[in-house]
């Protein structure tokens, strides 16, 4: 014969059931498939099947930046001390593509490293990403492309806290690589407004510049001269077996208002398309 439960036990059982419904047990962590790259998209880590990148020896005019970036990324892949990197400077000079190429180069060499692209709006959830990647064996470059902050304090302060100073330590298999056209990530007019409107202008300015200071390695990319631009075009031409007309390449750059690695690649695409050559 079943013994009836006491009123106290029945009450506690009902409370326990109610609490379980309000706060169910966390779901099992979804397995992360191996991929050369991932996209962090609103709390979901989405694998990217192919990491499109130029060979590292294809870059011209940024030898020092390429060497420094590769050295740091090699250390990260081997779980040695490595820096977060800020790549700043002129548009189209290879900041973003160089990051992808460095990761792809090490993957081809057998290193367990992957790229994780993070949009600015998803920085607020980056702690969740770090906890998930900390359980993985490989290394990860957390890549924020073309980053700048105007008035969004939440993402700005969240990234600054994660880079240094937060109470939760970052795993040693993850480092941030950020590209920006601005050396201090925030625009000049914002820095000037801080000086004009702050009660203590220097404190306000220092707070704004603190994010850029969190990066252990800062690599500057500057507009190239005509000689370097033509060397870029010729390097692409040799790689794809294309006949390059230097004067036409200069005219192409003039029509676009400047010289850069991006403009050189666009000209090569034009030449290849006209010649019926596929660029792989």
Automatic annotation (TrEMBL):
<dbReference type="InterPro" id="IPR003593">
    <property type="entry name" value="AAA+_ATPase"/>
</dbReference>
<dbReference type="InterPro" id="IPR008533">
    <property type="entry name" value="DUF815"/>
</dbReference>
<dbReference type="InterPro" id="IPR027417">
    <property type="entry name" value="P-loop_NTPase"/>
</dbReference>
<dbReference type="Pfam" id="PF05673">
    <property type="entry name" value="DUF815"/>
</dbReference>
<feature type="domain" description="AAA+ ATPase">
    <location>
        <begin position="81"/>
        <end position="205"/>
    </location>
</feature>
<protein>
    <submittedName>
        <fullName>ATPase AAA</fullName>
    </submittedName>
</protein>
């Amino acid at each position: 014969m079943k013994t009836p439960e006491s009123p106290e036990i029945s009450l506690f059982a009902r409370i326990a059931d109610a609490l379980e419904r309000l706060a169910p047990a966390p779901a099992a962590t979804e397995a992360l498939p191996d991929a050369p790259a991932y996209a962090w998209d609103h709390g979901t880590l989405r694998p990217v099947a192919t990491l499109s990148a130029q060979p590292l020896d294809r870059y011209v005019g940024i030898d020092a930046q390429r060497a420094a970036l590769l050295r740091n990324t090699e250390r990260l892949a081997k779980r040695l001390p490595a820096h977060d990197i800020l790549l700043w400077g002129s548009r189209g000079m290879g900041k973003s593509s160089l990051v992808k190429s460095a990761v792809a180069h090490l993957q081809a060499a057998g290193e367990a490293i992957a790229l994780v692209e993070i949009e600015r709006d998803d920085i607020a959830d980056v702690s969740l990403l770090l906890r998930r990647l900390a359980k993985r064996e490989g290394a990860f470059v957390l890549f924020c492309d073309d980053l700048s902050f105007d008035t969004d304090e939440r993402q700005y302060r969240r990234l600054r806290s994660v880079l240094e100073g937060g109470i939760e330590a970052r795993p040693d298999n993850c480092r941030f690589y950020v590209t920006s056209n601005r050396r201090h990530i925030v625009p000049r007019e914002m820095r000037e407004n801080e000086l004009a409107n702050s009660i203590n202008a220097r404190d306000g300015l220092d707070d704004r510049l603190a994010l850029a200071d969190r990066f252990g390695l800062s690599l500057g990319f500057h507009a190239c001269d005509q000689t370097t631009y033509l060397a870029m075009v010729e390097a692409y031409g040799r790689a794809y077996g294309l006949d390059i007309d230097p004067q036409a390449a200069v005219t192409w750059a003039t029509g676009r208002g400047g010289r850069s690695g991006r403009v050189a690649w666009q000209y090569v695409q034009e030449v290849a398309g006209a010649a019926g050559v596929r660029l792989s």
